[in-house]
């Protein structure tokens, strides 16, 4: 089925958008950015398709060198807009960046699984962990970093570029491991990053409270 990504997008995003008016501010913000994350997935897919056809690159080279850059840039745009015009509060940017990454991952995972007629339950579960954690964490890194880089105007531009580079490199390493069928290694790295961010989020703050 051609353009299945659009069919899936509208089936998911329309109910989400209709519920926005019924939700409180914080919940509305997260749901809105989940839907926005799915929009970034569509935009990235169109850009990646155009670049792949124009540059005539192999799938392996493109997935490990080009698509991580385009996807991380596109995913960062709504987070960047939120930081510039709405709020640079750390907790809010963390929530926004996670929501964008999760929205991107949900749509991408569904498209990949439904497009593969031979996909098994295990494939869906593995895809949920690797793709879900990957996109969520890579975007979270950018959002978390923006809360620091945005505190001083002179650091905002170079900080944003550095965050894109960091996320794109990590995304590229992840894709390289997946393309080589090193799924366990790819997942292990994501879990380590996840645990480290949990420590920064809760462990450090808890230690600070104990010292006060």
Give a brief outline of the structure.
With 212 residues, the protein is mostly helical. It is built from 7 helices and no strands. The model has no long low-confidence stretch (mean pLDDT 87).
If you had to describe this structure to a student in words, what would you say it looks like?
- With 212 residues, this protein is mostly helical.
- The protein has one domain (4-211).
- It is 87% helix and 0% strand.
- The protein has helices at residues 4-19, 25-55, 59-85, 90-115, 121-149, 153-179, 183-211.
- The longest helix has 31 residues, at 25-55.
- It is globular.
- It starts with a helix and ends with a helix.
Share in helix: over 70%
Parts with pLDDT < 50 across at least 5 consecutive residues: none
State the order of secondary-structure elements, H for helix, E for strand.
HHHHHHH
Q: Which percent band covers the strand fraction?
A: under 5%
Radius of gyration: 18 Å
Biggest sheet character: none
Q: What is the averaged pLDDT score?
A: 87
Head-to-tail CA distance between termini: 60 Å
* Overall outline: globular
* Total individual domains: 1
Summed up, the helix count is 7
The computed structural class is mainly alpha
